[in-house]
Every structure is written in C-alpha cells, then in structure tokens.
Amino acid sequence: MVRFIGNIDAKMDEKGRVFFPAVFRRTLQKEGDEALMIRKDIHQNCLVLYPKSVWNQQLDELRSRLNRWNAQQQMVFRQFVAGVDELPIDGNGRILIPKRLQQMAALQASVRFIGMDDTIELWAKETADSLLDNPAALGETLEALMDF
Amino acid sequence: MVRFIGNIDAKMDEKGRVFFPAVFRRTLQKEGDEALMIRKDIHQNCLVLYPKSVWNQQLDELRSRLNRWNAQQQMVFRQFVAGVDELPIDGNGRILIPKRLQQMAALQASVRFIGMDDTIELWAKETADSLLDNPAALGETLEALMDF
DNA sequence: TTTTTTGTGGGGAATTGTGGGGAAATGTGT
DNA sequence: ACACATTTCCCCACAATTCCCCACAAAAAA
Q1: CATH number of residue B50's parent domain
Q2: Which of A24, A43, A79 to mutate to test the interface with B (most CBs of B within 10 A)?
Q3: Rounded distance between C-alpha atoms, residue B126 and residue A9, angstroms
Q4: pLDDT (tens digit, 9 = 90+) per residue, B84-109?
C-alpha cells in the first residue's frame, strides 16, 4: 500500500519543469511503480498525481459503479478520464507540467507537493497556504466527525 | 499506551537540528516506535510531534470516516495532512526541523519540549514562557469542564 | 575520580534541487 | 512542402540542503 507523506515546496522554472521530491520518488520505487498520472482535481484548484497502479485501481472502482449505457453516467466517466496525462520523470528527476494543467491550477514559480495518502497533490504555494487559514472550521468538522 | 511527561529545554543549531530528549526517546522505544511525525498545531503557535503509530491510527480513523469523492470531506482530509512531515531521528539522536515549520513556530535557538500525553509539543522558549502568564482563563475552562 | 550517557557543534561528502543551453520533435500557417 | 514558432527532451553546471561522521562539553552514574 502506497502512502505518501509530507509537504515539499519546490520551484517551477519557466519551462514548466518541477523537481519531483526525492521522498516521493523513493516511496514510488518501493512499490515498483514508476509511472505517474496527472489530472486536475475534480473539485479543487490543484493537480493530482497518481501512481499508475493507484490510478488504474480508482478507474476500475469507478467503472464498476457506473452503467455504461446510461448517458449521464457515461459522461461522468468521460470527464474523469478526459484530461489525464501520463507524466514521465526525466533524467534529472523532474516532471514537466503540461501548459494546460499549469493554467488550470494557476501554477506560478512557487508550488507545493502535498502527500495525500495514496496520491500527491500539486498546488500553487499561495493557494496552499490559504488552505491552512481556516483552523476554526476544520476544528469543528473534525470534532463532529471524530466524536464517538 | 504512550505517555510523554516533562518539559525539556534544548538548543537548535544553525542547521535546524535539535537533540530529541532522552526521556522521550526511551518512552518511544518502549513502544517499539522509532519514527516521528511533525506538524504545526491547529490552534497554537507551536509544533506537535506524534509517534508514527499514533499518527497512523488517527489517520486511518479519519480516512475510514471520509468519502474521497465528497468535496467537503476530501477537504477535511487535505487540511489534516497538509503541513505534516515525517521526522527521522539521526545517528546522534537529533531531529531536523524543516525550515517551513521553523518559521511557522518562530523557532529560534532556544526551544522547549513539552510532553502532552501521547504527543510532544515543541515551542520557541520565549513563546512558551509567555503562555504561562494566563492562569485565570485556564481555571475557568477547567472548572466548566470538570463540573458534574 | 572515572566512566557512561546526554547534549552541542562543526566539517565535509552525498544527495537533492535549480537554472539554462540547445538539439530534436511537434505543430502552425502560408 | 517549407519556414517558423513552440514544446519537449537531453545534457551539463552549480547552489542548497541533508546526511554521516567525528570531537568534545556537561551532566549523571558508578
């Protein structure tokens, strides 16, 4: 079971290249998983990186719940799959973020990787910082969720 | 059950390394737990150290209650893991505090470890000192909580 | 006092991260 | 088909950080 942990700040150069953090690369290799998939998050303004095996797994799960003859459900599936790219790691250990996705997530020079269990999220640093600005709300939600 | 007790002052060097107090290390080892997790406290201006097993337990607990396809619940999970890092103990028994977190907690050379039951807090010494100045509020809260 | 454990400091190698040049590949319009 | 711009890829150089090692001070134990 893959488990990415940690938060790494990095810089994207003008060419759209970002060093893929060594911690995560090790985690990836430990799973014998080399390839990454990238897509825009459905809800949030960030990018999601999947080890290919995790991606396939989620795809299977989704597919199994959808009726392929139902137009609306088929549309959901299409939206999920469309816009996904494979993301090779270059000789320097860097990844190249497609322009399309850079814009979608409003990535500037400063970005942040966030280990999210079995996926990794990639945020514009400024956007990520503002995430942590709402401790009160989080506190309440957590309190409600974990109350037992 | 882990239970950390005590206040220990220590010094952080220019590289951001701090000796992890021997008392706590023993407690940790007694649990067969080697690794630590670190994050900024949600409410206070300090850092929290979790034995990895405690952290994983909380994470699993949370994960099992959340639906990853639900935007709001995914956000809760994200906020929970955002800012967390793994914190290995080096050959000298020291930990290396990530720059990002040093700044968040305004750590200088003088720091203080505070045993908080199953976690350990790490404060800038000056900040910790000024906290003890408010016994009145503590009294009230305790009174309200323990009234039965 | 001597020995052991705990805590501080620093040098330097190895790894990680950043930047840029320019060749190859791809796409665009004429 | 051709010239041109854009994007991708492969290479090198270097800066920054982390890791590993050793030395030693300070405190506690023997």
Answers
A1: 3.40.1550.20
A2: A43
A3: 28
A4: 999 999 888 999 999 889 988 888 88
